[in-house]
Amino acid sequence: MDDVVSHSRKPVVCRYFAASGTCFYGNDCQFLHNSIPRSSISPTFPIHLFSSPSRSANSTTASISTELSLSIIESNGLDQSFEKNVNKSTFSNYAFSVKDECMHKAQELSISPDIQTAGESNSSLFEENVGGTTYYYTPEDDIKPNHEDLTIQNHGGQATDKIAHTAVLSRRIQSPNQLVSTSQQPNHLFSVYSGPSSFLLSCTGQQRSSFFMNEDIRADLIQRNSVALLTSDPALFPDLPSDVDHYHELVPLETHTLNQAVKSNTYGLITSTYKASNSKTGMRYCLKRIHGYRVTSAKCMSMVELWRKVQQCHLVTLREAFTTKAFGDHSIVFAYDYYPGAETLLTKYLASTAPHLDPFSSDPSAPRPYTMQKNRMLQQQAGKGVLPESLLWSYIIELCSALRSVHSAGLAVRALDPSKVLVTSRGRLRLCGGGIFDVLTYDSSSSNVSALIPHYQQEDLLALGKLILALACNSLLALQRDNVPTSMDIISKNYSSDLRNLVMYLLSTPQGSRAKNIQEVMPMIGARFFSQLEAATLHADYLEDQLARELDNGRLFRLLGKLGTVVDRPELNLDSTWSETGDRYLLKLFRDYMLHPCTDDGRPWVDLAHIVACLNRLDTASQDKICLTSRDQQNVLVVSYAELHQCLETSFNELQQAALAPSHVLGASSSNEQ
Ligand SMILES: Nc1ncnc2c1ncn2[C@@H]1O[C@H](COP(=O)(O)OP(=O)(O)OP(=O)(O)O)[C@@H](O)[C@H]1O
Region labeled Knob domain — which residues (predicted)? Predict the structure, then answer.
């Protein structure tokens, strides 16, 4: 059938053109008989309404062999046609092609002169350990020009350019769908979640194949979103200003200090912490305010600049600091990244373990502060259960990683306290409060403000040792001088000698001029670092799988929304029959077909896979045909998804034009009709 000629044909797809290639009206038909080109598929909703990009017209992600896809295929009795379209041999062809390419690449690499040269020079390798990393080098390394750089610079047209060739090769290998004819694939299957991968079995467990993410992750995200969106009650916080510099919507994060000025245990000054939104960007930040503080020299802000540059995944980044009178006093405010729902190590593990031992208590049963009593309490708390060693090592690695970045930047944390370590989702630790002490204690008269940094770095290591000790003994009592021998006993009993040695190293006083160094902790962590890396990588794979489940839900939701705006609309342009006639009638029957199917004996047939399959075919304008029946069984229509797609596009455009039309046009059209 000639689809292109159609000199007098209307630019609308014919409804009577059958899959066999014949039309009820034969050559006299006035409508088009070609399939709608995939590229003509418009975004599900107009771009200006939703900023997310529409699906690519040539998106080609085939997934035909999974149980889920098959269940969708089987679930729809009428839509069998596309099964025939899948030519499995194309996939095996692709496998051969990839294999050939790989072998070709391997041969190419095996004769690479570069690799042979590198192998020969191995004989004169030097070895040096710098900051916990072993470097191997040859004396020529320093003077030899960087071969790879040269290769990249010279790759203009030379066939010997190995890097460019490999890049092209890998690009070819990474595009399997280029080797499979797109016309042979049912395009509505491209976006269907293909089911969990076997390599994720250990983390997905018994989780069923589903279009939705894991419930725990969902609950966690919802919880975080709701915390991020919290606003404060002005009745509870009457003194809270509506704007502080370019921040607004302040919400106190320390609710226990309701309008009270409380001295910080860490800084010894009155402080408050708020969540706030940046008025320019809308992003949320955590503001730490130091009450009644006057900055004597603007030079101290140079420390803020240094801290801003330290960005690390286990460090809460300091974004800026400014002075303000918005609170009715002279305050200095530090703006940090905000992590909704974060708690501190102190509140998560240690808050209830620091009883106040009052030597003057009149209660005879109250614990008294003599050494034996404190020892007993510490042992009791450790007896309640200590943290698993693997978790402790994971925390150690995260904290060391943050310290390493800070110390390498020539700075010191100076507030490595359980109340200054945030625990965010999945036990991720983040050090916060960096830079505050540096600004508060800035000595503008000093000629060398960084002279004391090495000393503070030593204090950081000591603080890290204390933090691990407290976590390992499950109590802040472990840090009391009288209790340290008991604390070390608890560690020896419950943990490996490696952990004990690490704590001993961190708590020890440096001998003579030999200072401790965070780099020296790296060999003590050793291969545990790899376990941490593996766990993080596996989790990233898991999250990617969860993302794949939700990939198309937004798109399908928008499509449903679009359908819903058209079907059953009471009127358009004062035409009350609009949604019951023409294209809209077809869409209404399709809605029933998709959402209200029944079994032969009249029971509702509820199958989400059916709905997803219908929506995907509608969105991709599939050529599959379905049989639509009116509710009174009087009308039976066979239509393709491509036609339904066209109906939806046309109707929705009509709707949009009416929505955007000036009101007098609507008024005029209504008076004309009367
Ligand atoms: N960057 C942040 N993102 C999200 N929440 C935070 C952030 N920083 C702190 N918080 C939350 O705010 C609460 C108060 O933090 P803050 O640093 O003021 O603790 P604090 O115990 O009052 O310390 P201090 O006594 O030293 O002032 C913390 O318990 C934590 O849950």
Answer: 566-674
Question: Beta 243-244 vs 133-137: how paired, if at all?
Answer: unpaired
Residue 111 banded pLDDT, cuts 50, 70, 90: very low
Contact 172, 98 (CB under 8 A): no
Neighbours of 100 (CB within 10 A): 10
Q: Over the stretch 444-470, which tens digit does the pLDDT of each residue have?
A: 888 888 899 999 999 999 999 999 999
Higher pLDDT, 386 or 465: 465
52 is in an annotated binding site: no
SS (H, E, C) 592-620: HHHHCCECCCCCECCCHHHHHHHHHHHHC
What ipTM goes with this model?
A: 0.97
**φ, ψ of residue 540 in degrees (nearest 5):** -65, -40
The CATH T-level fold of domain 230-355+365-516 is: Transferase(Phosphotransferase); domain 1 (1.10.510)
CA–CA gap between residue 286 and residue 334 (Å, rounded): 8
Determine the 3-state secondary structure of 12 from DSSP: strand
> What are the extents of the domains in the chain?
35-87+552-674, 89-180, 230-355+365-516
Q: Which of 32-36, 232-236, 545-549, 595-599 has the lowest mean pLDDT?
A: 32-36
Pairing label, strands 31-32, 10-13:
parallel
Mean pLDDT, the chain, rounded, equals 76
Which pLDDT score, from 0 to 100, does residue 495 have? Answer: 95
- CA of 288 from ligand 1 middle (Å) equals 8
Cβ-based neighbours of 284, under 8 Å, separated by 6 or more: 228, 275, 276, 277, 278, 338, 340
Q: What CATH architecture applies to the domain 35-87+552-674?
A: Orthogonal Bundle (1.10)
Compute the distance from residue 420 Cα to the ligand 1 centre, in Å.
7
Q: H-type helices in 355-431, by residue range?
A: 371-383, 389-408
293 annotated to bind ligand: no
Handedness of CA 468, 469, 473, 476 (dihedral sign): negative
Outline where 229-292 has alpha helix (H): none
How are beta strands 271-278 and 247-252 bridged, if at all?
antiparallel
Q: Where are the beta strands (DSSP E) in 515-564?
A: none
Tens of pLDDT along 618-651? 999 999 999 999 888 888 999 999 999 999 999 9
For ligand 1, pick from 273, 286, 288, 290 the residue to mutate: most ligand atoms within 8 Å of CB. 273
Distance in angstroms (rounded) separating the CA atoms of residues 201 and 638: 43
